[in-house]
Each structure stands twice: as structure tokens, then as C-alpha cells.
Amino acid sequence: MRKAALHKTGVPTSLPKRSDMVVEQIKSWIADEGLNPGDRLPQEKELMHHFGVSKGTMREALKSLEVQGLIRVSTGPKGGASVASVSLQRSMQLLANYFYFQDLTLRQIYAVRRLLEPELAAAAAEYLTEAELDALEKSVTLCSHPPTDRDMEHRQRLAELDFHDILANACRNEYLAFNCRFMNSLLKNCTVIKKIYSGEAQRASPARVRKLAADGLRAHLALLAAFRARDPARVRTLMLEHIVEAERHMVALEAVVVARFMDERPARRSAAAAE
Amino acid sequence: MRKAALHKTGVPTSLPKRSDMVVEQIKSWIADEGLNPGDRLPQEKELMHHFGVSKGTMREALKSLEVQGLIRVSTGPKGGASVASVSLQRSMQLLANYFYFQDLTLRQIYAVRRLLEPELAAAAAEYLTEAELDALEKSVTLCSHPPTDRDMEHRQRLAELDFHDILANACRNEYLAFNCRFMNSLLKNCTVIKKIYSGEAQRASPARVRKLAADGLRAHLALLAAFRARDPARVRTLMLEHIVEAERHMVALEAVVVARFMDERPARRSAAAAE
DNA sequence: AGATATTTGTTCGTATGTATT
DNA sequence: TAATACATACGAACAAATATC
After folding, report:
1. 3-class DSSP assignment, residue A252
2. For residue range B107-133, what is the model confidence (pLDDT) as tens digits?
3. What is the CATH classification number for the domain harbouring B76?
4. Using CA atoms, how far apart are residues A192 and A220, in angstroms rounded to an integer?
5. What local confidence, expressed as pLDDT, does residue A107 receive?
6. Average pLDDT for residues A163-170, to the nearest whole number?
7. Nucleotide nearest to A15 (CA to C1')
8. Distance (Å) from CA B76 to C1' D16?
9. 3-state SS, one letter per residue, for A132-149
10. Which is nearest to B88 in space by CA: A167, A13, A194, A72?
11. In a domain, A235, yes or no
12. Is the minimum distance from the CB of A49 to strand D below 7 Å?
């Protein structure tokens, strides 16, 4: 399970441009040489000469690699391009771009979350450090007081998601952890959460928002106790209940909010431009 | 659940370069205007003038957006940049870059696959068209004859994964489907599959390879019957068994192959470059 | 089918900014 | 502080691709 082809782009979108060919060559060069994060690439001038392209073209190629997160480039002496490990944030952002036009629903996300998050929590139960347990508790206490204003309400919702991010940090399965972190970030940016922030959700259905918060707090408290007891089976059960419950509240809120503000939403422009 | 911020990059990596600022501005412009795939952006010259940057800088910005999959650009009259929906292939490749340095194990991937694939299959059972059922059957028959050479053996392994891709196509949950498709592509490129292709796995453990193929065929046949019967519950059960079984074989093969060829693997260079 | 106009793609020369020593 | 090494940015000219007539 190592070194799956870094370069093979799969489908030739059209005619490959010069800069794209350079990109592929540099990629396979990195893979073939087995370069690791931190290793430096030759400097611009040398690369230009090596690939027989001009500055502008080489710059575009390096830009492409930089956007993909595969290299970092810095100015000054000892500067230039160096191999980088793709950051978590960058990957999540690039992946979020894919779903931008997919019209995901909360149900679809929660259908996956319901399956993965209990497993993540159970795995984390085994490895959570004392520091992480304290961090969990801090997130819980932040949510334990009724919010005095909307900003605090919003921060409490985000803290609830931080709770789940901490579990991802403790999980040794990087693949599982990434998936859960990404769903957390999707939820952090989702419309319903934003509506809660802006106060629209409260106005639409204050009782539901209160119950969402109260149920969340109760669930996190119970989970924290199970984590401290290092009881993976109980953690799994509690987390599943928590996710199912949260989904119910969120979906209900989404329906309310959408129904109330449908007319305010700007209709999307007609596709297939101009002409 | 619409229009989560397209632009907010999150962490300012360092000092923003000119081209990066242009990128962010164009992104938020696309989001604010609610542009859809196909909608055209102003042409290079106009953009240069609008943002007050030179041609090279503008080109870097457009290159960045192109790499992210957010725009496509073409030459000629009526050419220029237009908004694009990020393609599945591009997203999977960008995401694969993240895991390139994460040293994922088969176990980690299968820990997630075991949870998601049965759910995907159950969901697909409801929606599979006749054409898709036929495609499934075609994949199964391709695997039903003992392979005559290594190339055929390899194509059969890939056909098995195509079987699972077809299920993803039939699933209405785009988020679940993406996750399953991505794991399929990870497996297609994983070392063990490649070793099977090159014949190393056969030489190391021919009995295990035969059993992997035989069990896979049997499982897919049973699944096909359950799909035709539109029996989601049975599909779910069968798929779980199939995945667990496949994991066992693959992990065993991986161990054998790694043990036999450890010395041939090129050691990775020392990290933290020069100096 | 071929000519032409339009728009991106590439190159070069030069100047500026920035981090190291 | 100054000198050096490197990326970053500008502008003009030319090459290549493609839609339209």
C-alpha cells in the first residue's frame, strides 16, 4: 500500500499544454526519485533549462504543483521549490470544491456520518490522551451554559464540532479520521449552521434550536464519561444515538429555514453561458 | 446545504502573492454571482485590466483555478475561461495526493470500506436499472473463467472493482458514492493489485491468489442474484461478508509480497533536505 | 474546404521584492 | 549595512489553436 502512482492523470482532457507536460514530468520525477517532504527541487532557472521552456511556462507548472499542495516555493537564498506533504486544510478545500455543484443534502452527509463516526469514536476511546480528554471536557463546558447571544450560540455549535475533531485527532486510522474531519468541516460551513449564526433559525423555530443544543450537551457528557471509562462498546452506542438525534434536529431545522426563506434565496443564473 | 463558502482558504500560508489574491477575488466573484458551470468569465485581457495585473500574473491565477477544476479555458474566438463543475477524476486525483505521504494500510481502507460498501449496495439495490444489472453481469462473466495469463488475471481484478463502481453509479447519495468510488480507485492503484499484475503475487502465494479470485466470483454471483431480486437486506449482508473476506485475502497477500520483496524496495531518501 | 479574425499559449528582456549571510 | 541569491512581476512581441464566414 505504498506509492500509488502520483502522476498518472488518467484522462487527457484535451491537448496537453506545455506547462501541463512539465507538471507531469516533475511529478513522476518526484515519485521515481522517492523524494520526501522537505527535499528541494532545482531552482527555476535550472528547471527552465532542463525542460527547455521559458520562465513563464515553468512558473505556470510550478504554480500548478503548488496549488495541488505538492510543493512549496519561497524566495531568497536557499529558496525555490521544495516537496511538501499536502496539508489537511488544502485537501479538504479542494474536495469541498467538488461538492460545490453537487447539491448535497444533510441527509446524504448524515447517512455516511452515522456509519463512520461511531467507529471513529470507538477507535479513539482506546487512544485518547489525558490532554485530549481535557480538551473534550473544555468543549463540553463551553456548551453547558445557555447562550446569552447569537454569537455565543454559534460558537457553541462550532465547539460541538470541535469535540468531534478531537476524536479524529486521536484516531490512528488516518483514512477514517480524514473522512470524519471532512464531514465536520462540511457541517461547519453548511447553511443551517450559518442560519443559526445569523439568528434566522431561532426566529423560525426557537424550541427546536434549544432542543438541538440540550440534546447535544447531554450526549457529549455521556460520551465523555464513556471515554474516561475506556469503554469502546458504550462509546459506539452513544455516538450512534447522538448522530441520529442530531440529524433529526438538523433536518427539521433545515426544512423550517428553507421554507421560511425560500423567496429570499437568489435564484441561480441560467447555465450554458452567453450566445 | 448550498453554497458553502467557495473562497475562504482558511489559513494564510504566508504572504499572499498577487496571483493568489486574484484567485480569491475571482472565486468569491463566482460564488457571489452564483455562476453555474458553463457560464463564461471575461477574457484574459479584460481581467488583466480589471485587476490591474500583468499577463503573466493573470495567467498564473487562471492556472490555479484550472488546476482546482473550477474553470476551463479554451483558445480561439468565443474562447476564454468558463466556470466548470469539478470532475470526479480530478477530485479523486487531488485527494489521492493527500494520502501519498500518509502511508495508508489496506486495513485502514477496509475499515471504512466495510462500513460504507454494504450501505452503498443496499441503496443501489433499489435503483439499479436493467442496463446496469447487465453491466454487473458482464463484469461477473469476465471473471468466471480461469485466467490464461497474467494480463487477464489483472483485468479480472480490475473488473471486480468495476462491479463496485457500477453500484456507486446507481446510488443516489452522491456523497456516499464518491467515498466508495475513491476507495475503489485507491485499491486499483494499490501495491498488492500491481504485484498481482506483475505476477509477483502468484509466485509468492498462488493458492491465495486463486482463492481470492474464486471467493470474489462467488460473492459477486450471489450479489447479482440479490440485486435482481431487489432484496436490500440480503444485499447488505452479502456485501459485508464479501468485503470482510476480500480484506482477509488482500492483507495476507500484502504480507507475503512485502516479506518476499522487502529487499528490492528502494529505501526512501532522507527527509528534511540539504543542510 | 480554406482564409481570416479572435483569443489563448509561449517567449524574452528587464525590473522589483524578499530573505539569507 | 551591504551584497547575494532567489522568486515575483511587468510588457511587448510572436506562435499556436479554433470558431466563423
Report:
1. helix
2. 999 999 999 999 999 999 999 999 999
3. 1.10.10.10
4. 21
5. 94
6. 98
7. D17
8. 10
9. HHHHHHHHHHHCCCCCCC
10. A13
11. yes
12. no
Identify whether B269 is part of a domain. no
Q: Which domain holds residue A14?
A: 4-83
The last residue of one of the domains, among B51, B83, B115, is B83
* Whether residues A247 and A218 fall in one domain: yes
Q: Which residues from chain B sit within 8 angstroms of residue A3, using beta carbons?
A: 100, 191
Looking at beta carbons, which residues of chain B come within 8 Å of A272? 38
Distance A117 CA to C7 C1' (A): 50
Residue B102: give its domain's CATH number.
Answer: 1.20.120.530
C-alpha angle with apex B213: B209 to B214, nearest 5 degrees? 115
Tell me, yes or no, whether B79 and B183 share the same domain.
Answer: no
Residue at A190 is within a domain: yes
Same-domain check for residues A69 and A164: no
Residue B97 shares a structural domain with residue B73: no
Inspect the interface and report whether the beta carbons of B4 and A186 lie closer than 8 Å. yes
Handedness of CA B129, B132, B136, B137 (dihedral sign): positive
Q: Are residues B183 and B244 in the same domain?
A: yes
Burial B75-114 (b: 16+ CB within 10 A, else e): eeeeebbbbbbbebebbbbbbbbbbbbeebbbebbbbbbb
Q: What is the pLDDT of residues A185-235, one digit of tens each?
A: 999 888 777 777 677 777 778 888 889 899 999 999 999 999 999 999 999
Question: For A1, which of B5, B64, B105 is closest by C-beta distance?
Answer: B105
State the total domains in chain A: 2
CA/C1' separation A79–D2 (Å): 20
Q: Which candidate in A73, A110, A112 is best for mutational testing of the B interface (most B CBs within 10 A)?
A: A112
Residues B212 and B109 in one domain: yes
A201 domain-assigned: yes
User: Which candidate from B95, B116, B273 shows the least CB-CB separation from A95?
Assistant: B95
Residues of B in contact with A116 (CB under 8 A): 112, 115-116
pLDDT at position A15, please? 66
pLDDT, residue A262, reads 44
Residue type, B269: R
Confidence tier at B258 by pLDDT (50, 70, 90): low
> Does the nearest atom of strand C lie within 7 Å of B81's Cβ?
yes
Q: Report yes or no: A258 at the B interface, CB cutoff 8 Å.
A: no
What nine digits make up the cell of B253?
497477500
C-alpha cell at A157: 455549535
Do B73 and B111 belong together in one domain? no
B53, B83, B113 — which closes off a domain? B83
A93:B9 CB<8 A? yes
Nearest protein residue to nucleotide D16 (CA to C1' distance) is B75
Straight-line distance from CA A35 to C1' C14, in Å?
35
Q: Does B27 score more than 90 pLDDT?
A: yes
pTM over 0.85? The answer is yes
Question: Is residue A96 located within the same domain as residue A73?
Answer: no
Between the CA of residue B56 and those of A58, A68, B61, B63, B181, what are the distances in Å? 11, 20, 9, 10, 37
Q: Name the pLDDT band for B273 (thresholds 50, 70, 90).
A: very low
Q: What is the DSSP letter of B263?
A: G
Among B55, B57, B94, the residue to mutate for chain A (most A Cβ within 10 A): B94
